Fold:
Amino acid sequence: MLEFPTWKKLWYWGLTLVIALCAVPSLVSLTNARWPAFLPEPKINLGLDLAGGSRLLLEANRQQVVQQRLEGMEESVRTRLRQASPTIAIGDFSSTGGQLAFTVRDPSQVDAAREAILPLTSGAGLTGQRDWDITVQDGTRFILVPTQAGIDLAISNAMETAVEVVRKRIDALGTKEPDIRRLGGTRIDVQVPGLQDPQALKNLLGQTAKLEFKLVDETAVPSDLAKGMVPPGDELVPYADANDPAAGGVPVLAVKRLGGIKGDELTDAKQAFDSKTNAAVVSITFNQQGGEKFAKLTSENVGKRFAIILDGKVLSAPAMHEAILGGSAQISGSFNVQSATQLAIALRSGALPVDLTVVEERTVGPDLGADSIQKGVVAMGVGTVLLMLFIFLTYGRFGAYANLALVFNVLMILGVMAVLGTTLTLPGIAGFVLTIGAAVDANVLINERIREERHRGRRVVQAVELGYKEASRAIFDANITNSIAAVLMFAFGSGPVRGFAVVLMIGIVTSVFTAVTMSRMWVAGWLRRARPSDLNV
Amino acid sequence: MKLLKLIPDHTNIHFLRWQWPFFITNLLAMAASIVLLFTHGLNLGVDFVGGQMIRVTFEQSATAPVGKLRDSVDALGFGEPVIQTFGKPNEVSVRMKLPEGADDNPKLADGMARKITAKIRQDFADARVDGVDSVSGKVSGELFHTGMLALGLAMICISIYIWIRFEWQFAVGALFALVQDILLTVGMFSLTQMEFDLNIVAALLTLLGYSLNDKIVVYDRIRENMKKHRRMPMNELLDLSVNETLSRTIATSLSVLIMLVSLLFLGPDVIFGFTAAITLGIFIGTYSSIFMSAPILIWLGVKSDTFVKQESEIDRQDRLAREGGARP
Structure:
């Protein structure tokens, strides 16, 4: 137990010193001194509760993804069957209850219809799983039911896109080092250090920015719309601009449900001013494909009105006087410069595939964090000095070794945190202080045992050996139970609590190394050199 | 150098003589905690009930003008706030419920915190707004659920570990002591009406770990002594084990307490409740390690020879045959 060959000693010391060295940059930054730029700089990140900033937890509307997918499928199915040769006529299309249903008019075309829509139903993955199940009832009625796997995949894809869009939008705000990550099934965790007023960010993220251009149904009768009667093939979209005479004083507009184009094929969007009215507008530029679609839509419908719809609300419904072929257009609405700029940012970063709502929001002022760090450091310093004094007074030389182990333990925890790039949070500081208190427990156990073995009359070397051996069992068990608590805390906790758990876990590992292994090495070295005949322990 | 001895070397305190008075006191304390939880409940923070919490420090005042602050916020018409100081008397948290229906329509809650902080800044020149937490009802429900799940799982996992390493009686004993530690600590939170939030659950989890360290050390010694002293009556054996580990139990608890107390008085104010919970728990845990963890074993029917391997019939015949064969 007390034999330490030279290679082992070198290895232990090397490991300790290298890890402890990694703590230096973090310690230097505490004193506001400058760290030379040419040296590597592993530093511990400060959590939002210490650095100040905002955290938003966004949740996506799962149901909306499912609904959008249903609508997309309907459009695809209709297009497929129309384009089939010969055209397959269908009727009774319904998209209620989370499934699509339609009837093929000519029973002899049922097989052809199935053939035509089959490619639409297989999954995007290579596994060959189906996204939709097709069943045919009564010979001619097709039922398309989305499979769970298909829905999950759609949501997963939507969330991936959403995270990207959120990232682009936050970058556009010019904030530094935002941390954006997907959390669980339908949530996104956004942390922006230094951001004090999250309102602008919330406004930006709260906007889905789904832009659509749809034809206005000119035949709709405003009085029918007011009663909620929807002309076939149309949908009603809220339209706040009651001054528009075409709306007929009704706060909704009937637009053709299908056949419009989406505004997601843009290369640019920026705030501009209308050349005639001088009002703030958003000028958009389509990409090649979007430009062609837009040109087709406008040239086929010259003289008609089309509605510019943003997030399910009509912004404006201008008439197309001529075909717009250049691939760029401008969106008017009742904008001011600020809201036009915001929309431009949102459009540039792309539409969110799904609405996001803020379900949790935390903001911490910068003063509080600085205050907490300072107080945490003071508490740790005072506590550590008192603790070392207590340990030294109780165990003498063995206490001094325990204290030395403690110093290395603190440095090693900091070093490991810096190398792993973990985040120090406010409860993490508490975890640190607590870990220091608990780390000496191992040495207390060992030293008490050595003391006991001496009282039983064992010789010095034997007492030390037994002390380490017998205490190890309890130390091991105790650390396992602590790990269980820490792992569960990490698994179930959020932000700051996780920071606490991380410190505990790192502390458990490093404390066993310093308090048991290193201290044993030092004690063994002393026994060999001094060959004491008695122990003052 | 004369070393400090907190506990004299060879103590022989008959802890088990008082096992029944202590047990009854424990049961009463646990019952009181449960009654408190039902009558007073816990002062749950926004983490668990949803709502908004705004932390404000009054930099120029020794104590926060709580009454005036309440009137000021109340005048906005969002409902009456719950105002509580934490850490220092000039630091308060202002808690508000989210408006009715805010879960479905986040716009309702939007701007509420903004208006309140603006009003506070306007009415109190020295007010420094340190943070705003806003948690929707949906998330708070989940946080509460996962918090309780984590606590429950921790107790079960730790007990299973003890069961594997020791015997089932030790696991039951540890579990009972853990339930007692948690219950009494939570009871104190109910009594003092300190805010109970997510951090406190983390504190309770930490407590489980540390409280168990003590028990493991005692149990480890009991197991060792059971092997050494096969003929010793159980009462004496348990007393011996607790006495032998007493010095260590006290020294360790004291080490942790030194750190905790300096954190409590010098550390960040925001985690005052968190530190208080752990400090309290360490006291309760130390008490239960010394007075409770050992007697439970007796009540569970552990005897000095319980864990000595019983000789099976085949082994006995083998032994007799060997002994018989060895005889001339």
The first strand of chain B starts at residue 43 and ends at 44. Chain B has two domains: 15-40+140-299, 51-135. The CA atoms of residues 162 and 168 of chain B lie 8 Å apart.
